[in-house]
From TrEMBL:
<dbReference type="GO" id="GO:0005524">
    <property type="term" value="F:ATP binding"/>
</dbReference>
<feature type="domain" description="Terminase large subunit GpA endonuclease">
    <location>
        <begin position="288"/>
        <end position="560"/>
    </location>
</feature>
<dbReference type="InterPro" id="IPR027417">
    <property type="entry name" value="P-loop_NTPase"/>
</dbReference>
<dbReference type="Pfam" id="PF20454">
    <property type="entry name" value="GpA_nuclease"/>
</dbReference>
<dbReference type="InterPro" id="IPR046454">
    <property type="entry name" value="GpA_endonuclease"/>
</dbReference>
<dbReference type="GO" id="GO:0004519">
    <property type="term" value="F:endonuclease activity"/>
</dbReference>
<dbReference type="InterPro" id="IPR008866">
    <property type="entry name" value="Phage_lambda_GpA-like"/>
</dbReference>
<feature type="domain" description="Phage terminase large subunit GpA ATPase">
    <location>
        <begin position="38"/>
        <end position="278"/>
    </location>
</feature>
<dbReference type="GO" id="GO:0016887">
    <property type="term" value="F:ATP hydrolysis activity"/>
</dbReference>
<protein>
    <recommendedName>
        <fullName>Phage terminase large subunit (GpA)</fullName>
    </recommendedName>
</protein>
<dbReference type="Pfam" id="PF05876">
    <property type="entry name" value="GpA_ATPase"/>
</dbReference>
<dbReference type="InterPro" id="IPR046453">
    <property type="entry name" value="GpA_ATPase"/>
</dbReference>
Length: 590
């Protein structure tokens, strides 16, 4: 395969034709935008960053162009310009690949046809072609010396019959692998018989790990667009980190030059961008031009720094909106923030409280229990009106098939601890994982006589849409189904973005290692990118499981917090206080 590729490459170099009019020049001289397509109809004036991208497309020494793009920088003008210029100047078989049928229809009707209508030298060039059933199709056109197909990546079988010289693909990160294969690979295969082929690819990146356009850019000469500072003249790529604004006033957003460290006002942006230039960061790569652009260089009114900073502020705290901002404005792939959770950071948040020092806001206590062959592990959570407190994590050594193990657990679950309001507090509900086949009967045997104390058997079920806890419909089985994926997702997002989960200083380092033992990643399953939880290799997860079950147990409670607060405030002198478990138990951790 490599040898064929090399022969093809050499043939390609030998075939380089004399220079033609660069695409940017052709677009500005010949192309006309109709009112339906642009707010600025008529002749097209390209921005400096658009010009070099356009020229790379018609540069005979360039075989591939890969563009990592944000929205609001006018890529569709370049795409249409490229199609139009090939039709007019270098008639060839052309294929445009877009993610869906709707994209194809929309592009043909709203962009391509109006531009061909409005542009004098293109007028009447495209004629509809009948498909095999005799119907005219929108997506297949003939013109003197060539043909144009517009195909949806969702129906890759339409790719089979045609060999093309010019392949243009837009929004490649929206193209999914189907059982017929990867549409991008299938489309590229159609170009192999042309020594002077062109493969043009553009997209807003989506997920960093699975992005097609980021992968292509990484193989290119990786150009970045740099503008000169108004104040010191040094060139830099404007990045989000360089945009600053006064706290609470995103409308004051401005650029801090990384060289002179002075603030440059938005009003200088057009002249800086006009004087900007592309720089290849991997100049040793030949024949593959890669461009990376973000919306910070866009001079459109809806992409002003102030407008973007306002959008960013509005998106903060909303992961979905933030991802849209990162993808479409910054043109960066999204990384799940949960991946950046580090156990050391969480451990450093430990505070002085625990079962023997219950914080006053706690109104309820729940326990989650994980069953292993040689031990039980359990986490005690305190719940205030707004926060979750991890009070303790403990281990009871002994086989789950041994009665004394369960006796120890029962004693712990019956304990009461002094509450600062004056009364005592105990475990309000507990869920024990009965999922492991060998111990199911033992767990059922323990929970069955303790339903009135809300001590229940639980079993994890996957799927992000599941409720936290729900009674199993299976008859005669005393079982609750726990939506572990949804609860883990909620936990990871609370841990990474908030501080409403608080940790006792009695927790050991291994607690935090296990709590962060799974991360949400993107995986291809049956060809589809999918987010799943994956265990970090070599880590145990009992503490995570206990946490999830203890949170699920909270769902069994329908207590009125006001009433509970009143109860805790009534000082009850009880003989049971001798039963209070103190730090002796805390020392029994593994
Ligand atoms: Zn400067």
């Amino acid at each position: 395969m490599r040898a064929i590729e090399e022969v093809r490459r050499r043939a390609f170099r030998a075939l380089i034709p004399p220079p033609r009019m660069p695409l940017s020049e052709w677009i500005e001289r010949e192309m006309r935008l109709p009112e339906a397509v642009s707010a600025l109809p008529g002749r097209v004036r390209l921005w400096p960053y658009q010009r070099e991208i356009a020229d790379a497309i018609t540069d005979p020494a360039v075989e591939r162009v890969s563009l990592v793009k944000p929205v609001r920088v006018g890529f569709s003008t370049i795409l249409s310009g490229a199609v139009a210029s090939y039709v007019a100047n270098e008639p060839s078989p052309i294929l445009v690949l877009l993610p869906t049928e709707a994209d194809c229809r929309d592009y043909t009707v709203s962009d391509l046809e109006p531009i061909f209508e409005a542009t004098p030298c293109l007028h009447g060039l495209l004629s509809a072609e009948a498909d095999e059933t005799g119907r005219n199709t929108l997506s297949s056109r003939r013109f003197p010396g060539g043909s144009l197909k517009i195909v949806a990546a969702k129906s890759p079988r339409n790719l089979r019959r045609h060999n093309v010289r010019i392949l243009l693909m837009d929004e490649v990160d929206g193209m999914e692998v189907s059982k017929e294969g990867d549409p991008i690979t299938l489309a590229e295969r159609r170009t192999l018989s042309f020594a002077n082929r062109k493969i043009i690819m553009g997209s807003t990146p989506v997920h960093e790990e699975t992005s097609n356009v980021l992968r292509a850019y990484a193989q290119s000469d990786a150009r970045v667009f740099e503008v000169p500072c108004k104040l010191c003249g040094s060139f830099s790529e404007i990045q989000w980190a360089h945009i600053e604004w006064a706290t609470g006033r995103p409308e004051t957003a401005a650029f801090r030059c990384p060289h002179c460290e002075e603030i440059v006002d938005e009003k200088y942006k057009p002249e800086m961008v006009e004087a900007g230039r592309w720089r290849a960061t991997r100049p040793e790569v030949k024949g593959h031009a890669g461009f990376r652009l973000n919306a910070l260089v866009s001079c459109l009114a809806n992409a002003s720094w102030a407008k973007l900073a306002t959008e960013f502020v509005a998106a903060t705290g909303h992961p979905d909106k933030l991802q849209t901002f990162v993808n479409t404005i910054l043109a960066q792939g999204w990384r799940e923030s949960a991946e950046e959770l580090d156990e050391a950071g969480l451990a450093s948040r430990r505070e002085r409280f625990g079962l023997d020092e219950i914080p006053a806001p706690i109104l309820m206590v729940t326990t989650g229990i994980d069953v292993q062959d040689d031990r039980l592990e359990l986490t005690f959570l305190g719940h205030s009106r707004t926060e979750t407190f991890v009070l303790a994590h403990m281990v009871i050594w002994g086989s789950p098939l041994d009665n004394t193990t369960w006796y120890e657990l029962d004693e712990l679950l019956k304990s009461r601890w002094p509450h600062p309001l004056g009364g005592t507090i105990g475990v309000d509900a507990a869920v024990i994982d009965s999922g492991d086949g060998g111990v199911t009967d033992a767990v059922y045997g323990f929970t069955r006589p303790r339903f009135n104390r809300k001590i229940m058997s639980g079993k994890g079920v996957s799927g992000f849409q599941r409720p936290a806890i729900q009674k199993s419909q299976a008859k005669g089985v005393p079982l609750f189904l726990v939506g572990v994926d949804a609860l883990k997702a909620q936990l990871l997002s609370r841990l990474s973005r908030g501080r409403d989960i608080r940790f006792s200083d009695s927790l050991e380092p291994r607690y935090f290692e296990e709590l962060t033992s799974e991360r949400r990643v993107v995986r291809y399953r049956s060809g589809r990118p999918e987010r799943v939880f994956e265990r970090i290799s070599g880590r145990r997860a009992e503490c995570l499981d206990c946490f999830v079950y203890a949170i699920a147990a909270r769902g069994l409670l329908t207590l009125d917090p006001d009433r509970r607060e009143a109860e805790l405030s009534q000082i009850v002198v009880s003989k049971k206080s001798s039963n209070t478990i103190r730090s002796a138990w805390l020392d029994r951790r593994a």
